[in-house]
Design a protein that fits this description.
heterodimer; A: mainly alpha; MetI-like fold; 2 domains; 76% helix; B: alpha/beta; 24% strand
Amino acid sequence: MRKIKELVIEKSLFTSALVTIAVTVGIILVLAVEAVRFFSEVSILDFFTDTQWTPLFTEKHFGILPLLSGTLLTSFIAIAVALPIGLSISIYLSEYAPRSFRKTVKPLLELLAAVPTVVYGFFALIVVTPFLQEIIPNLSGFNSLSAGIVMGIMIIPYVSSLSEDALHAVPQSLREASYGMGATKLQTAFKVAVPAASSGIIVSIILAISRAIGETMIVAIAAGQQPRLTLDPTVPIETITAYIVQVSLGDVQHGSIEYRTIFAAGITLFVLTFLLNTLSYRIRKKYHLKYE
Amino acid sequence: MEPTIHKNNTQDLKVNEVLQKKPPTIEVKEVKVWYDDFMAIKGIDIAIKPNTVTAFIGPSGCGKSTFLRLFNRMNDYIDGYKMEGKIKINGKNINKKKVIVEVLRKEIGMVFQKPNPFPKSIFENVAYGLKIQGIKDKNFIQKRVEKALKQADLWEEVKDNLKKSALALSGGQQQRLCIARTLAVEPSIILMDEPTSALDPISTAKIEDLIRELKKKYTIIIVTHNMQQASRISDYTAFFYIGDLIEYGKTKKIFTNPEKKQTENYITGRFG
């Protein structure tokens, strides 16, 4: 009887693991099949070199570069915001703050990541953009700057929380060794703790970038929907994710070339985040080896 | 508030080296330590003799490590720590507000229980203490690193691999590296907190030889659980029991003819 119970539990656990894998494989398959159909009509070369993305217009261009540049531009702005703030927070929390303070502040910070992104999107459009327009008068109502900044605020906890975990994992004995030689707290933090936790910190940054690249709602609401190959953060752009939303919500015909652009854009996005996640996994594995 | 970083220039340090350092005196009066409500040290008086090895022995939890860490104020960062009493090194109370703890720790080096090299190269480990003082003179650092590694009897083993990660060394080598790292700053007192407890007998013997050699120039205080070690390397022994200093005297006397019953029971292995 007991054996049967064990067997049932084991099989059901195995099945749930299998379902997850099956769903992932299914998604990749659908993406791949539709993308292959897309690339049978549009050459890969055009896809990566054409500087215009106008699949919904009469004169169609299928160059992913404008969407890619929009995605990278907003992500870059987000990281430029999240990196210094997130790292400062993590260093303060792990090296300076009293333990009780750390225990209350860390979960509060993580709440930032729990705010629905649609709220952030409206915050960017209705609060941050008008505020920025007072500083930069020719800023458009939709722009990558405001969307990037707000996205940066959203991913602060990814950087701060994971970096703090990495710093916290640095053995106290290393800090004591440093203090013991007459180092100040500041020197110990930057010359011992941060270098020792560097791989964990890098992983946190990569995951934050990956999150920024995949973020949809904020950019769809606040960055505009105009695919444009530019590095100017004050004009409307469109990211890969925002484009997918736009087409999915529109009335393109199922099975048409416009419809398949979703999958071409989707697989580009997938490959990008997959590469970043693999990289962070590799670094993390190496890092675990170092501390046994 | 963060104490300012003190930069000694290389010239000062060279002068220091030329002027023979006077052997330090250490006096402890009426020292009591609490962790929150727990009284870890219950009022200890002791005077440590310069250029000797003094061993602190006693069962686990008797306060000997806490006591050792008072000398370089390493307990300062522990939550709930509180102390009373006076510790004078060279006649100066080290707990006074105007004492800069970073300067104090330069004078009083520490070697820890487990080897704790930084995840940096061998060279960078030994140079660390000099670099944080703001010393930039590469030649000077190079010489100091070599000297410290030689003093720690590690030079011959690592001289061709100074760029290698310190984590690749064996446990015994790592501990000697940690000693070299401490010596590079040229302290006058070295505190050792069970430095061989994580090492094999051969590595332990090497470190003990090293301690015997070092006492010519340094005052050494060593916490040890190993009674044979205390009797082999120390000149003076202090026996601690539940936050009290029970007996303190010449090692020979403590181990052959202790005055207190508790000491005798401990060193003969009847408890602890």
